[in-house]
Amino acid sequence: MTQTTGIAITGVSGRMGRMLVQQVAASDAAHLVGAIERPGHDWIGQDLGTAMGGAENGVIVTADPLEAIKSAQALIDFTTPEATLSFAALAAQARAVHVIGTTGMTDAQIAQLVPAARHAVIVRAGNMSLGVNLLTQLTRRVAAALDADFDIEIIEAHHNQKVDAPSGTALMLGEAAAAGRGVTLSQVADRGRDGMTGARKRGDIGFAAIRGGDIVGEHDVLFAAPGERIVLRHVATDRAVFARGALKAALWGQGRNPGQYDMLDVLGLSGENAL
User: Fold this and answer.
1) Which residues pair with 152 in a beta bridge?
2) How do residues 64-118 score in pLDDT, each as one tens digit?
3) Same-domain check for residues 81 and 210
4) Which among 66, 75, 196, 208 is least buried, having the fewest CB atoms inside 10 angstroms?
5) 163 and 108: one domain?
6) Which of 31, 119, 159, 162 is catalytic?
7) CA 193: distance to chain centroid?
8) How far apart are CA 207 and CA 190, in angstroms?
């Protein structure tokens, strides 16, 4: 029998957590070995399968991440920045691939991942979908081809429970646009307009966030110049695209050298293979 990759998942009761559990269960290359929830959650101590309303699957939900990670070859993590940093240290100890889909991490928090990446593979991305990562590459290329006569605006829409803005994907697209222009995003980002803001500054990259209903994720990159506009767009209608990408990353990371990677690496779109 072919050995499959043991996966541990954080936040298993959440929408993404449940989707990840389903993707792993349907995979012939992976199996679930750990299910993590926050202390005090109703699911703690229960069989995950029955907690999700199905048949027992033998995986007991735990609040002890060390217990869940110690037998895993990969940890898939869509939680909070603070929790992700704690998980990174444990995944590094276990030499498990750490797939990070957590958004809202500051530059300082991202820098704290460096010690863990010396011992284990970390795959971190603002968005795990193939389409969005292609959009990122296209954004970089278009930004490089157009001068600052074209204003760049990134418009994103998500469900009304999302807690961070702009989204991690929007910031990823902003980074791509800035790289295409040969500038640093932090120097040109305009992340909020309200009141008498004055005219738009030439060369800025603007962000707008929409929150409502159950929108899974929509991202537009607008290049606007006098007399013409170019719009690059990605619409996600099913959260499963993110779960599939995260599982792909977990499997891809097996046997890789320790270090920090992203979905462009996973999809073979980085470096000389970039669009």
Assistant:
1) 205, 223
2) 999 999 999 999 999 999 999 999 999 999 999 999 999 889 999 999 999 999 9
3) no
4) 196
5) no
6) 162
7) 26
8) 6
